[in-house]
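Forum: Protein Structure Q&A
Topic: Joint prediction for protein chains with partners

I've read a bunch of threads here and the consensus seems to be that you should model interacting components together rather than docking separate models afterwards. I'd like to see that in practice. Below is the full input, 503 residues plus whatever partners are listed. Could one of the regulars post the assembled result?
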Amino acid sequence: MGRVAIISASMTQFGQRDDWICELLTEAGESCLTNVDVDASELDHLYVSNMASGEFEGQTGVPNALAHDIGALGAYTQRIDQTSSSGGAGIYAAWQSVASGASELTMLVGGEKMTHRSTAEATDIIASLTHPVEYKHGVTLPSFAGLVSRLYLESYDAPRKALGAVAAKNHANGIDNPHAQFQKEVDQETILESPIIADPLRLYDFCPITDGSAALLFCPEEKAAEYTDDYTVISGIGGATDTHVVHERVDPTVMSGVVDSSRQAYEMADIDPEDVDIAELHDMFTILEVLQLEDLGFFEKGEGWRAAVEGTTARDGDLPVNTSGGLKSKGHPLGASGVAQVYELHQQLTQSADSRQVEADTGLACNVGGFDNCVTTTILEATS
Amino acid sequence: MNFEAHSCPNGHVTYPRHTVCPKCGEEQTEIVDLTDEVGTVVTWTTSTATPPGVREPNHLAIVEFNLGETNVRALGQTTDPVETGDQVTPVFCKELRDPGAGIREKESQDWDGYRFSPV
Ligand SMILES: [Zn+2]
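Posted by a regular:
Agreed with the consensus. Here's the joint model:
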């Protein structure tokens, strides 16, 4: 099985947009093709990562609409929904399509349009992924984060300010990302005094509701140089699910979907966690970045909270995490987020990250759906 | 209505019921009644940003019931604020949230259940 290259990456401005889902997807898709001067008619497969365009705006069948709008008629199309990890699942599908030989040129576009809904409505649409015995209690994804954060802080005697440090770091990184929803520094005091959303978590422990889209273009590694010199290669990828019902986990502070999917990705890439130079983690809630640092093997269990506090995951630290600003300041348009994580790795590994550029040859993206209900991990390598 | 967990022939207990036991794959054949049990709060949160039809603030807890050989957990609302380690007992509630207000189809599931009350 041959390796798969990413030959182009794009993302739209994230934030509050007037455009609807099909317009956002078209914007990212067209710019991804234009970057490498590829005509849409050359695409064999066109995938769309999207969680809930039907629920958010009453628009279904988005891949076919996109194929028509960008002129990719004839391409095989498919929508990929894996809740918050739809983007990562789309990368998995696009990788499969090329690695299997079924497609020689696949474009993945991820996107979501959410901000026209109230926070309560958007929260409910997302909460609908929970089990009926959870949903009827009014549980939301933020309340799972509150429940697990308390358990984590109490189990490992971690200070509350460790979660605030994750938010502060990712906001600081977002300043240098022109596509980010927020480009402003937020200090610890503001974070720790912001309104309570799901005790002990406060407003700044959560990512915003966001509109946006991102796209990636895939081909076999041996054909990549025909399109561009600046390509990266997917050296490892994995996907896994955890229990649907969160309280059934032996230890709710362990995300076994992250553990299992990353083990697959490390094995395929034949590397260890120590070999990873940068990571884009799914910081939908600050606690999730801490848990992923542990479950991906970067830190021992119970030690991940030290990373942001001690600067290990800062942009100038040993393992820069979320140089893009993460979901926290870049924003979290559900279907786009996993695609945008790999956009950031691609920019970094091709030396195209401008003022937020770090030195890195190997990058890892972890895209978490639900509260670890489903996860994909992607490992990307530089080629030059 | 009782607050029911389910057990397979190998003694694995789950709440809620599953089509097959998540641990061994066998059919769940026994009912374990938790209605009069006392459980312990494992963790809790108070949510102030709640979806349509849900009380605000919404106190939630994960509670563990010790059944001797094994234990089982459940998530639920609490009648009053609780702390980790508190002892609680289930109290029936006819409607945990307004079934017509949220995105999920009203007829697709039931809406009664149990809240946890400190003892
Ligand atoms: Zn069993």
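Chain A touches chain B through 41 residues (CB under 8 Å).
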